[in-house]
Write a structure and sequence with these properties.
With about 850 residues, the protein is mainly α. Among the domains are: about 1-60, Zinc/RING finger domain, C3HC4 (zinc finger) (Herpes Virus-1, 2-Layer Sandwich), CATH 3.30.40.10; about 350-500, no CATH class; about 620-695; about 700-870, no CATH class. It is about 75% helix and about 0% strand. The protein has helices spanning about 35-45, 70-115, 120-125, 125-130, 135-165, 180-185, 190-200, 220-230, 235-255, 260-265, 275-310, 315-320, 320-345, 350-390, 395-405, 410-435, 455-460, 465-495, 515-530, 535-555, 560, 565-585, 595-605, 620-660, 665-690, 695-740, 750-770, 775-785, 795-820, 830-870; strands spanning about 20, 30. Strands 1-2 form a two-stranded antiparallel ribbon. It is extended, with a radius of gyration of 36 Å.
């Protein structure tokens, strides 16, 4: 059998011979060079897809080629390369100047003109655009304005997609005409799908079982009743237009070809980006001229005129956030105006205006709800946490008021951040409770893990008073939990332990130990151990399960809290039968009914979602009340332990190091928490080893002791010696020459040098892991892959610790030997010896950097030489 090319399936010829450039065997190893080049260009790969061998091409030179290139050819190639570099530099400079200079500056000047509130600012806008005052500040402010504007525009587009795919509210959409449902199933408008979805939602899947709460939202039935009451008239013309729009949209989707877009993207080379950048700049400037008035100008002035008319201008100015509050008030008034105009348009049957006003109202409504959910609610939680913890830090409301007056933006941001952390951990704890408790116990809380849960769809469909009621209930619940777990424990601690509080949170310290070292221990040792370990969550889950079982058996609520295994199995079998019966009786929805209708039909077949039946004991309400009381007492005791035990242990341990000096309670609490974590971890490990017998325990203790000894040796070398040498070298090369004059003696602090060395070592390790493959990266990756349990002490010492320590010692000792041993032998003056001794480290660093640059330039010149030779 003749050899053929595996791409074009042709035989080899003298003009087009066959090659086998990879390690593949058999008939697939042969290929033409032209076919290989074309395939590599198409696949954008440099290796064989079968054997993973990287292809290499060797240039073939003419027999009469000279051994060295002429000078004029080298000079011409060098000039060509310089010209190409200048062209690209000019292109990138133009792009950077446009996007970092022209566009932000234009945005900033437009915003200043709009919010000045005078006609003269509009008349002088062209001159202000060309002004050179405050260029840097205006560019930075303009970048922020452009970013916010683009984010707002992208959010509007995304919200439109949510409305299109998820459906608009019933009061905005109209039911499709009957002839659409009869003859146009395949191209039905989205309104038809929404109608099917709402009808399906109004019909309960199965009657709920006794003592059962169906679903996770207690307000679902109220929503359905409210949606049933909101009925609107049907318009045939609107339905026909919607169906036609849907047909056109479907045809556009079918005619869309991804390959054409890919081909256009491939043809868009760097040389053509100049025109694209120019078009983008023109579009961006046009966008900035039209979008800001709609986004901020109109709501701001509406709110401003309203506040001035109502006499609240002074109160708003005293808040230090006049612009933000005025804009939010303007949006609220704009939403009220839109809903009133929507009602008037409905009465006079202006269908297109009615829909446009409704969509605008939805946009404003969702925007305000997002601000409330993400901005206002965490801010309230943060301030409430601060107010309830004032006695813990020996602070007063007057102190908080003074801090707010001095730095309002920073104060509000810190309180918002604390509130966000509180909300996040509360939601995480609720998710952990759902993993333990019976499905259906937390029916009054939304399930964030539910794949059907979409907060944006809820913002679109639910009325505004429902969101307001949820917001008030959330504030009450979160505020009550703060009172229970923070304010009340603080009062109890002050009564039982008068000398324990307040916590020391001063930013200064009179301790002899550097604050930098303590911060380093906190950031590099304590927090990674507490945050990166999954044991803490498992321990908390185990405690919750144990508490739930205890409370269930004490109050006879085990079936309600955890469910019954036998009943769950019977319920699962019955559920399978119900599903099979539903599949036999229910028809599959057609495509025209929409994805949501099909999804609702699937939910109907499955019966009640997120619920398990339970046995209801006697005096059930009383038992639930006792359960809540027991839960409050448990949370109070847990809060007391968390507020006292870690801090007490940390203070006791820190006293051996710092004596009677006061340390920031962040360090003492972190140290005590870390010790508690280590203790609990050791106890859990011993408990897990207990069933295996005494011999196995001794063997495990021996293995762990050996592993701990190896880890300590590695820690001393890599976390002690290497950072100390690295920090000392940095001090000699950078810090001392810049900060200490020649007539003064530099002082070195080992603790600070070690702390800085740890940071520098982590930065160097991160850069090494992100860089190209070389011996240090290979060794670090191997050590990281082995982990602590499979630690190889010999490999680490021989491959990592010894080379790195040797290089650092040579870098420290060689300059010192030259300055202190060689230079005095030359007979120079004492001033010259001092100068050499103080400047030899940065001088040698400059020499090393210069040699590296020269080596890099030599390699680049060799590549240029080969490139010129290959082109010739």
């Amino acid at each position: 059998m003749d050899n053929i090319c595996r791409v074009c399936r042709s035989e080899g010829t003298p003009e087009k011979p066959l090659y086998h450039p990879c390690v593949c065997t058999g008939s697939i190893k042969f290929i033409h060079q032209e076919c290989l080049v074309q395939w590599l260009k198409h696949s954008r790969k440099e290796y064989c897809e079968l054997c993973k061998h990287r292809f290499a091409f060797t240039p073939i030179y003419s027999p009469d080629m000279p051994s060295r290139l002429p000078i004029q050819d080298i000079f011409a190639g060098l000039v060509t390369s310089i010209g190409t570099a200048i062209r690209y530099w000019f292109h990138y400079t133009l792009v950077a100047f446009a996007w970092l200079g022209v566009v932000p500056l234009t945005a900033c000047r437009i915003y200043k003109c709009l919010f000045t509130g005078s006609v003269s600012s509009l008349l002088t806008l062209p001159l202000d655009m060309l002004s050179t005052e405050n260029l840097l500040a205006d560019c930075l402010q303009g970048c922020f304005v452009v970013t916010c504007t683009l984010c707002a525009f992208i959010s509007l587009v995304w919200l439109r997609e949510q409305i299109v795919h998820g459906g608009a509210p019933i009061w905005l959409e109209h039911a499709a005409p009957p002839f659409n449902a009869a003859g146009h199933h395949q191209n039905e408008a989205p309104a038809g799908g929404n109608g099917a979805e709402n009808v399906a939602a109004d019909q309960p899947a199965n009657p709920p079982a006794e003592n059962a709460v169906v679903g996770e939202n207690p307000e679902a039935q109220d929503d359905q009743a409210e949606e049933d009451e909101e009925e609107n008239e049907e318009e045939d013309d609107a339905g026909v237009e919607d169906a036609a729009d849907a047909n056109n949209g479907a045809q556009d989707d079918m005619n869309w070809n991804a390959l054409e877009w890919d081909r256009a993207a491939e043809e868009l080379t760097w040389e053509r980006w100049g025109i694209v950048v120019g078009v983008f700049i023109v579009l961006m400037l046009t966008f900035l001229l039209n979008f800001p008035p709609l986004l901020a100008f109109c709501p701001y002035h509406i709110g401003h005129f309203s506040l001035v008319g109502l006499g609240f201008e002074e109160h708003v100015q005293a808040s230090h956030f006049e612009g933000l509050i005025t804009t939010i008030v303007g949006y609220i008034l704009l939403a009220i105006t839109l809903i009133i105009c929507h009602g008037l348009a409905t009465l006079v049957k202006f269908h297109r205006s009615r829909r446009l006003l409704g969509v605008c109202y939805i946009v404003v409504k969702v925007s305000l709800l997002v601000v409330v959910e993400i901005g206002v609610f965490p801010l309230i939680c943060g301030w409430w946490l601060d107010i309830c913890s004032l006695e813990m830090f020996d602070a007063t409301l007057k102190d908080r008021e003074l801090s707010f007056q001095s730095a309002p933006g920073t104060t509000m941001f810190l309180h918002w951040l604390v509130g966000m952390v509180y909300v996040f951990y509360f939601a995480s704890f609720i998710l952990l409770l759902r993993e333990v408790l019976r499905p259906g116990v937390l029916w009054f809380l939304r399930n964030l893990n539910d794949p059907d849960f979409n907060p944006v769809q809820e913002m679109i469909h639910l009325p505004i008073y429902r969101h307001l009621r949820r917001f008030i209930l959330s504030v009450i619940v979160f505020g009550s939990i703060v009172l229970l777990m923070l304010w009340l424990p603080i009062r109890i601690i002050k009564s039982l332990l008068p000398n324990f509080l307040p916590y020391n949170v001063m930013l200064y310290s009179d301790a002899p130990v550097s604050e930098l070292s303590l911060e380093l221990l906190l950031l590099q040792v304590v927090l990674p151990a507490l945050l990166e370990q999954g044991h803490t969550r498992q321990w908390l889950k185990g405690l919750v399960r144990a508490w739930t079982m205890t409370a269930g058996y004490l109050l006879d609520l085990h079936s309600y809290l955890l469910g019954d295994q036998e009943e769950n199995e019977n319920s699962a079998n019955q559920q399978v039968n119900n599903n099979q019966h539903a599949r036999n009786n229910n028809a599959i929805p057609v495509v025209g009914e929409g994805l949501h209708a099909a999804h609702q039909a699937i939910l109907q077949q499955g019966g009640p979602v997120g619920f398990q039946p339970y046995r209801r004991p006697l005096n059930f309400p009383l038992r639930i009340f006792l359960l809540i009381v027991f839960m409050c007492i448990t949370l109070l005791i847990a809060s007391l332990i968390c507020l006292t035990l870690p801090v007490f242990a940390g203070r006791w341990l820190m006293s051996f190091w710092t004596g009677t000096a006061k340390i920031h309670e962040l360090y003492t609490a972190a140290c005590g928490l870390y010790v508690c974590w280590l203790t609990i971890r050791a106890v859990t490990v011993l408990v897990a080893w207990m069933p295996q017998g005494r011999r196995v325990i001794f063997q495990k203790v021996k293995e762990w002791s050996l592993m701990i000894m190896k880890t300590l040796i590695v820690a001393v070398l890599l976390a002690g010696v290497v950072p100390l040498l690295l920090g000392l070298l940095f001090e000699l090369v950078i810090v001392a020459p810049l900060r200490v004059p020649l007539d003064q003696t530099p002082l070195f602090y080992p603790w600070q040098d070690w702390a800085l060395g740890v940071l520098h070592a982590k930065i160097i390790a991160a850069i090494t892991l992100m860089g190209p493959q070389w011996w240090l990266k290979t060794v670090i990756e191997q050590v990281y892959a082995n982990g602590i349990r499979n630690i190889d002490l010999h490999y680490i010492v021989r491959k990592l610790a010894a080379p790195v320590i040797s290089v650092l010692l040579l870098s420290l000792c060689v300059p010192y030997v030259i300055a202190s041993g060689v230079v005095p032998l030359l007979g120079v003056t004492a001033e010259m010896q001092n100068l050499v001794h103080r400047r030899i480290y940065p001088f040698l660093l400059m020499v090393v950097v210069l040699m590296a640059i020269l080596s890099f330039q030599v390699r680049q010149f060799k590549r240029l030489y080969e490139h010129i030779k290959n082109d010739k």
